[in-house]
Design brief:
Blueprint (H helix, E strand, L loop, with lengths): L1 H13 L20 H57 L2 H13 L3 H20 L2 E4 L11 E7 L10 E6 L1 E4 L2 E4 L1 E6 L1
Parallel strand pairs: 2-6
Antiparallel strand pairs: 1-4, 3-6, 4-5
Helix pairs in contact: 3-4
């Protein structure tokens, strides 16, 4: 019996008292780790996450603005190309208008002349709808940006040098852009 008593004594001092129904007390934390210090790493992480979120937000705004500018620019370019395409088609009809005017000048039959005038009026209406205006510079100073000099003529009485004396072929412009230069005869 002695052996059992000695084993019990050896176990008793080394064993912690058992607590039933309650949790055992946790060992105390060292005094250097206070609750405020525990929150500092979390606060630093939160600040870092906020800064990162703000940076991503700025980048997102920049990309969104860049896309919006791209969308507007491509829409504008598309509209401009469409208008230029329409102007190209109409400008291919300018020689037909020239021929109609020549036919009107040469026609002697009133019925035929009236028919040609109706066709020419329809063409002029299309030009008006497309906001295309005729360049008719007779009596105005020569402008190399709108006129093409094909010949120089001697001045008559009262004519100044460098003015347009006669239009050989009408010019056309749309919104300030020359579609066809007016071919003119200029006073020397």
């Amino acid at each position: 019996m002695k052996k059992t008593h000695e084993t019990q004594e050896k176990k008793a001092p080394s064993a912690q008292p058992e607590v039933h129904g309650e949790q055992a007390e946790q060992p105390e934390q060292p005094e250097s780790a206070s609750p405020a210090e525990d929150k500092n790493p979390l606060a630093a992480e939160i600040e870092q996450a906020r800064a990162e979120a703000e940076d991503l937000k700025r980048k997102w705004y920049a990309v969104t603005a860049e896309y919006e500018n791209y969308r507007k620019r491509t829409a504008s370019q598309s509209a401009q190309r469409y208008c230029e395409g329409r102007a190209d088609v109409v400008s291919k009809l300018f020689p037909i208008a020239d021929n109609l005017e020549r036919a009107l000048a040469a026609c002697t039959d009133e019925g035929t002349k009236k028919g040609i005038q109706m066709v020419k009026a329809a063409f002029d209406k299309i030009l008006e709808e497309e906001k295309i205006v005729v360049i008719d510079p007779v009596g105005q100073p020569f402008d190399a940006e709108k006129h093409e000099a094909i010949m120089a003529a001697d001045p008559a009485e009262g004519e100044e040098s460098g003015t347009v004396k006669q239009v050989y072929l009408k010019g056309y412009e749309q919104n300030g852009k020359v579609l066809r230069f007016a071919q003119v005869i200029v006073v020397k």
